[in-house]
Amino acid sequence: MMLSALLPCIFLLSPGAPSLLAGADAEIVFAPPVRLEANGVPIDVTIGHAAPYVIDFDGDGVRDLLVGEFGDVDFPVERLPKRLQEAAKKSSYSQGKLRIYRNHGSDEQPLFKDFEYLRAGREDASMPTT
Ligand SMILES: [Ca+2]
Q1: Distance 89 CA to ligand 1 centre (A)
Q2: Which of 66, 67, 81, 130 has a CA that sits 20 to 30 A from residue 12's CA?
Q3: Total-model pTM
Q4: What distance in Å separates the CA atoms of residue 34 and residue 8, rounded to the nearest whole number?
């Protein structure tokens, strides 16, 4: 699935973009959509819906791109609390993960390269999704 869901993110990264905190009467105009790239190619995720979010994840003062995804891997049911495991076996959850694209550019001209998954200890953090 091409990450067309990320297109509205450019709105948040564009200089002079209207604030989301503007009053209810303010006219909000979105910038034209663009395809976000990492390493010079459009960002693509595994099967499923992408959930983009822009925030300064690493605290360096430049906003990064986070993308939640899920898809073709079943969630390991044994990770769930025991009281939820039986129900989870019947519904076959997919494994949801969070990609972190650190911004090597600026807020005005973001530059994304490789991504890393959010980690929990020695493994990728994940959660069950439907
Ligand atoms: Ca950052």
Answers
A1: 38
A2: 130
A3: 0.72
A4: 8
